[in-house]
Amino acid sequence: MRGANAALGAAGLAAFLALGEAVPRLGLVKEAYLPPTSRIAGALGQEVTDRAFWTALGDTLTGWALGLAIAVGAGVVVGLVVSVVPYLREATASTIEFLRPIPSVALIPLAVLLYGTELRSVLLLVVYASFWQVLVQVLYGVRDVDPVAEETARSYGLGPWARVRHVLWPTALPYVMTGVRLAAAVALILAVTAELVIGAPGLGARIAVAESSQAVPDMYALVVVTGLLGLVINVGARTVERRALAWHQSVRGEVMV
């Protein structure tokens, strides 16, 4: 079954690449706007031999990783505290619902004003966008705790920390891992967006330079790199999720199937 799915996926990718080659060659789209796949592949080959490309890739990954780590840590801690402390969830619900829908890109002027084109501007946007993904999942996970298990833990005299460790955390962990996976994708999007708009060092800034200099194949090649990077991050996040939840029924059922 997995072999058949892999074959279908490879066939679909091959058809997409062939379509990307044929459309501009047939004149359906001007090559100046959409180069053939072969030209994009050639530009990608030149990019990977350029040391500046790897420097930009490292800058993007640095902003992504640091921002994601800060967002996950803050989201888990704040979510647990808000959920455990009596009445704190009700007191913060309106504030969370007010701040969460604010688009991170709306904070770009503030980021530029505070930090210019430094890494801290990227981190501000990445952390803000990713934090809510984790926080909301933690809140949902804590809400899903079985009241009977909670009362049983209390009757056995478990303290707050012991209840969090043995009752709350195992129930909330699947939600937390979902939040981390979503946050990982959002963090990459915001990292590249910040670099593209602000001009902070990274792949986004390199894409902007290629676009402004009319190096269209190079621009598409860099866009492909960001797509591949997103794919790798998603696969990695799912792998970590499966390993962290190897004991959970959902993952065991998935492995059995």
Number of beta strands: 0
The arrangement of helices and strands along the chain is HHHHHHHHHHH
Helix content: over 70%
- Please give the oligomerization state of what you see: single chain
Strand content: under 5%
Radius of gyration of CA atoms, rounded to a whole number:
22 Å
Mean pLDDT across residues: 86
Distance between the termini: 10 Å
pLDDT under 50 segments (min length 5)? none
Q: Could you name the key traits of this structure?
A:
257 residues; mainly alpha; single chain; 11 helices; elongated
What does this structure look like?
The chain is elongated, with a radius of gyration of 22 Å. The protein is an all-alpha fold and 257 residues long. It is 82% helix and 0% strand. α8 runs parallel beside α9. The mean pLDDT is 86.
